[in-house]
Amino acid sequence: MISINRATTEDYKIIVEIGNVSVEEAHRASSPAKDLNEFIKKNYNDEVIKSELSDERNIYTIIKVDEEPAGFSKIIFNSEHSNIQQKNVTKLDRIYLLSKFFDLKLGYELLKFNIDLSKKNNQSGIWLFTWTGNNRAINFYLKTGFAIIGSHNYQVSANYSNPNHQMFLNIL
Ligand SMILES: CC(C)(COP(=O)(O)OP(=O)(O)OC[C@H]1O[C@@H](n2cnc3c(N)ncnc32)[C@H](O)[C@@H]1OP(=O)(O)O)[C@@H](O)C(=O)NCCC(=O)NCCS
């Protein structure tokens, strides 16, 4: 049984725990360990995630399988970007599943939930950044209809950045 629900402030531990494991696994090859660890420590601790969850603009969603948390996503409506002409576009800021839940179409279900929610909120498209070496994620996005529309240097730590694709999905 799959459930997909918006996270509340009480769900912070789930996001911190999955974030610490999944972000490290997905980006291990993208950055020196020191810089990636700094990134994870800074962005996935109890205080930061509690504060993110208490900001209405951050829409975190948790997907569970038989009550067990499998992953989460974060979107922000109306996140315009200079490279995108369309107005009212959503940024898919984070989407992470635990690896034991890969390839079960849970990523697709979670993405679909976010697309439907974005449509209901008068959004015209969804965009994201993804590290250029993340083949699993890039294939997933291409399969679900995203196109590569640009590139971006993602700042991982004070001293390290890596190349990202910018991708876009029209949902009009
Ligand atoms: C990216 C992610 C959300 C996709 O979710 P998922 O549930 O694994 O994907 P789905 O089962 O819905 O879709 C699988 C699709 O992913 C792609 N894929 C799966 N494994 C792959 C691999 N080893 N290499 C390349 N592409 C792969 C394929 O396109 C596949 O489609 P197909 O099975 O129809 O051929 C999930 O794998 C994940 O959380 N990855 C780690 C975190 C991450 O990288 N997040 C994105 C940061 S930008």
How would you describe the overall organization of this protein?
With 172 residues, this protein is of the alpha+beta class. It has one domain (2-170): 3-Layer(aba) Sandwich (Aminopeptidase), CATH 3.40.630. Helices cover 34% and strands 34% of the residues. It is built from five helices and seven strands; from the N terminus they run βαααβββαβαββ. The chain has helices spanning 12-27, 33-43, 46-53, 106-120, 135-143; strands at 2-6, 59-65, 68-76, 89-97, 125-131, 147-157, 160-170. Strands 1-2-3-4-5-7-6 form a seven-stranded mixed beta sheet, with helices on both faces. Helix 1 runs antiparallel to helix 2. It is globular and about 40 Å long. Coenzyme A is lined by residues 22, 26, 71, 95-97, 102-108, 130, 134-137, 139-140, 143.
Give the topology, please.
Elements: E1 2-6, H1 12-27, H2 33-43, H3 46-53, E2 59-65, E3 68-76, E4 89-97, H4 106-120, E5 125-131, H5 135-143, E6 147-157, E7 160-170
Parallel strand pairs: 4-5
Antiparallel strand pairs: 1-2, 2-3, 3-4, 5-7, 6-7
